[in-house]
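Worked Example 4.2. Read the sequence first, then its structure tokens.
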Amino acid sequence: MKLKTLAVVTMAAGISASAFGQGVILQNAGTAGNAVYVVTGGVTNLFDGNNFNVGVNITGGINASSLSAVGLGSYSSLTDPKGYTGLGLGMFALGPTGQDYAIPGVAAGGTATIRLQMWYDGYNGIGVAGLYGSYAAAAGSPTGLTADVTFTQSTGNPPLLPSPTLTGMPNIYLAGAVPEPSTLALAGLGLASLLMYRRRK
């Protein structure tokens, strides 16, 4: 009987411990100050996580010079376990629901630095998913929508506190990449300016 009681107590303790983690949950809470927006044609709208997908590279560490992807990884509509990265308007969730991730080098209850590289990744179920295979591909395209933010984030400290979501995250705006003008285009512009100046003389 005592052995059975001990097993039940141990199981209960395990369940309790699993509910609290020392890392962070890779999702935003969707409240004011940490929502995701899409900027297209000069119009800003809340990211619709039910119908549109984002891709996210996430790294973390003690500070901005020690960021690592260990255990955090990269997510997109094609690689996320849920098949999409959205929770609702302005919100996203990465990886299994409720799972927390330890931040490399940061002790439980400490403050971490998080970097999110996000890109628009196409439609979910009603069009093309995986529009861009990576942040680099989206950032290098004139039509890609990208954002790159770094912020500080507190971590959970078991068994006192649950792992927090990305509450330190600022609002993120996925805006189109601006292609750099080619050397030939710059040279042509310079030549045109010289010709205009010469004609005035």
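Now turn to a second chain, presented in exactly the same format:
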Amino acid sequence: MKRGRKRHQTTVEMQMTPMIDMVFLLLVFFMVAAKPVVPERDIPMGLPGQVAQEEVVDIPDEARVIIEPGGQIVLNEQSLDSPASSSLPELRAVLERFRLSAENAKSEALVTLAPHDTVPHQRLVDVLNACAEAGIKGVTLAGGGDE
């Protein structure tokens, strides 16, 4: 008697080619989907500018503006603008820098005006306007004299 057929036992092999293809596809997907690292963002960079001081720095606490009889403006022994100029751009620029340096030093910008007795009132008003345009609020008037 014949016994049943011998069954051929087939061995099951794992197909490696589709698995390798799938791994490469996943690798490409994650490489494209990942955000690239930008090394320039890691570098701390500070732009030049004005930095407030942590401690009070000794700067001249007051600017002295003398208005001479001819209308010439003298700020801390330095002549500025012409006597005919009513807008006083040089004085305004210097006062703005003075105010900014005082703010950075955490102090108040103070200006003392010392007009001569014969100076027209309009010249004093021009200087006050320059102080206001520079943002200086601490303005005082000194007595006139022969300064």
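Notes for the reader: Residues 92 and 133 are 7 Å apart (CA to CA). The domain at 62-141 is CATH 3.30.420.270 (Nucleotidyltransferase; domain 5).
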